[in-house]
User: Fold this.
Amino acid sequence: MTGFFADDLAGTVATWAAALVTVGVWAYLVGERRIFRLAQHLLIGLSTGYLALLAIREVLLPRLVQPLATDSAGNPLLWVALVLCAVMAAARWLPRGIVALPVAVLVAGTAAFALGGAVVGTLLPQLGATMLAPGLDAGGLVNGVLGAGVTALVLLAFLHGTPRARMLAGAAGTGRWLLLGGIGGWLGFLLVSRLSLLVDRLGFLLRDWLGVIR
Amino acid sequence: MAPMTERIESSAELPTADQPPAPRTRGRPRRRPRGIGLGWLALLALLAAAMIGAPGDRSAALTLPNPDGGAVIRLRAEFGRLPDLPFVLVGMDADLGTYPEIRPAIRAAFDDLMRRGASLAFVSLTAEGRAIAAAEVERLHAMGARDGALLDIGYVAGVEAGLVRLVGTALPASATGQLADAVRRRGGGLAAFDLALLVGGSDVGPRTWIEQVAPRLPDLPLVAIAPTFAQPELSPYLRSGQLTALLATVRDAAAYVEVVSGEGLTPLPDEPQRDQSPSALAMLVGMVVALLVLARLLFGAIPAIGRRSPHEANDEEGP
Assistant:
């Protein structure tokens, strides 16, 4: 059971709504697209409304409007943020040169944090983890050598064009099969994962909605 | 009455006044094949029947093909290293589409942590994660979680920038309660927590936390529960030690739920029924169906369900 809906009237209505929308989406399987489209529109409309509400209630009001209202002189940077927000909101009617400023701030800030994090948090630690540390036991050594070998072969599979040397072509072919094997294994997990989602939805209908199973 | 799609397709083939009628191509069916949808419905009904007829110990068989209990052992060992009455931050960034896959494991983890006296603070960097976090906090309150054990930090905008801000200031000014006061006494940032439980989704996930938080707070242990699709992305972080534990497949999650369920009492007195992993019988039936569909797609060896071949359709329509 999802545990999200209580036993009161609101919970009953929510359960029925969720069940009917689920059945409506599944109606696509028998070629009924109108109900499916209705569910799509419902999802998009609700998501947009929810996002707008979230932005206003949890970001703009507590982090921008309220601090400015209580201590407008003590937060000079918030005035800048307010102007940037206003420019973004009115982007449709303003010249591109003006709108480019908040967009540039947004993209540059995101890129700076994301790239810095990728280098410091992923690239360097992962490079360090793949290196063979001195004092490894036999198992660790075999693991490390195997890992390095498989990585090299898979990288060779991405060689541009057809390799002419027989050995290189063989290595690239082996790399391609290793890649396929890895993707195949992952897809197997993914199939089970998607199946568990379908079973969960069926479980919702049978347990929470119809009460057939307990 | 003919289905709408059938009528549309038929009208699309009508010749116009200045256009001669197109010759019928023998290999292509003119109509949408009838009965294909009924076949899918029959499969759903079969799956439903398997769920209804599943034995009492519904999900235990899911753990059978999982001889490696390492993921569960690592997670529980990390929980076991927590101090008394620990503060745990839950980074809830799951998405609505894949959350049902990990929901039983997440709730088992909440049970596991609260049984150890942990206090949970929820924060989200995504809108969908925020909706799920709010629902889970509400559910834990309704089920009778002890006073002061839960704190809803809310939604933090800006993803990477928001995470960096969280490192220094995790609590909003409006946060009140025992847990909020205790976190403020410890500095108010993420360093105030003893553990971060990261719940991944398709948008923001544990990787973002590792990249932004781990370099700034190397002493904060990070454990993650994520849907299967995130497993290839997150496994390297487990190997490198940046993640201390990871549950990222259905079988690992099922094994964890079994372990926690097997320990008996739930810390939530009013919980009517523990959230369960999917029924093993239903999963088996689903796998068989999936293999049939795959075989059909790959080899065309098995006739489509309820669909007549073009030759059959043409033969039946006659000259």
